Amino acid sequence: MKKSKWFVIxxxxxxxxxxxxxxxxxxxxxxxxxxxxxxxxKIGTVLxxxxxxxxxxxxxxxxxxxxxxxxxxxxxxxKLEVVDMEFDGLIPALLSNKLDMISCGLVNTPERAxxxxxxxxxxxxRQLVVVPxxxxxxxxxxxxQKGMKxxxxxxxxxxxxxxxxxxxATVVGFKQQEAMMEVTSGRADAHVxxxxxxxxxxxxxxxxxxxxxPEEPFSAEWGTYAVRPGDYxxxxxxxxxxxxxRVRGILDAMYxxxxxxxxxxxxx
Length: 268
Description:
The chain is of the alpha/beta class. The chain has 2 domains: 31-123 and 223-264, Periplasmic binding protein-like II (D-Maltodextrin-Binding Protein, domain 2, 3-Layer(aba) Sandwich), CATH 3.40.190; 126-211, 3-Layer(aba) Sandwich (D-Maltodextrin-Binding Protein, domain 2). It is 41% helix and 24% strand. Helix 6 (157-165) links the parallel strand 7 and strand 8. The protein is globular. It starts with a helix and ends in a 10-residue tail after the last helix.
């Protein structure tokens, strides 16, 4: 009986301890609380990728991501501060508390997940390959040769995909516009990027470049929001927010209105 009594007490102590730990975690202040107290949400992005995120003719932030940022700030009843910076500065800025979250369609990769938390996807991506109009490559496999130069955005999912798909070629990372110019000028044999970037590039340069794999994209992925690790309350809020607007068809409708029409649009 004594052994049974002490066993019951020990089990009860373990259960109580297990219950206490989550309470302390829940009690910790979330970035969500900080944002509400501050009255401003600071969202980092790169305003260089129309139509997803860019500056309009008046120099104001615009695009699919920016419209979603405005909706998020309105729902939280706070002001929006769009923090425009270079792509490679986003993650360090988030981890050093200079941003509350990142909104530039980051794809959740195992490497990035070591230092960040990612939400559900809010923007779909398909990776395509753009080649010079006179390229001898008939298939994607034709580019996987020594001497071939493939460009992509430095540090992006597209760059990682290019390295994986073309191990025998030379993959070079640039800023986005520079990466595109390499292929339109003929200095590169191919450029890997998201569909929404490739299609306008071809539309604006029909005599210089073409899409090599329009019917066979490399991958179908989702861009996500990124927040600092461990803040599950803010992460859950953002996931709930994304799901709320997705099931109501709002995200699909906004994508169709803002991004799809630009696929064949020229800047001329």
